[in-house]
Amino acid sequence: xxxxxEVRARIEAKVPELAGKLxxxxxxxxxxxxxxxxxxxxxxxxxxxxxRGGQASAVTGSFNQHFAETVIVVLAARVANDPTGGRxxxxxxPLVRKVIxxxxxxxxxxxxxxxxxxxxxxxxxxxxxxxxxxxFTLDDQLRITP
Length: 146
What we know:
Helix content is 27%, strand content 45%. By secondary structure, it is of the alpha+beta class.
């Protein structure tokens, strides 16, 4: 449950442009709070998203429940002297595709499902930095022995 580290490792392995440039939810929150943009030309953040519970069953000595976990990947592309973000679009588009191709169809070894694309959207453009959010969903299962 909460597969942030596994997703970050997978992206770094599959998208070399983001290796060493993936931040945490805390780093992203600080940038937002300070109204700043990442200092790298391209950067990313892997954030926890929602959990949605599904079918549950309880039998003697065991509780099982299917759930869907959403992991959010926020990408930022900055281009100097590009206040409208027009050239940043050219930078971020292949990056978005690589992240999608790197995560979709893959799942951690202990998960019964794989990541699927949930949603992607442009969050905004500020000072030549384009920010794009992609939501991925993993079908997983709780197995608890009380």
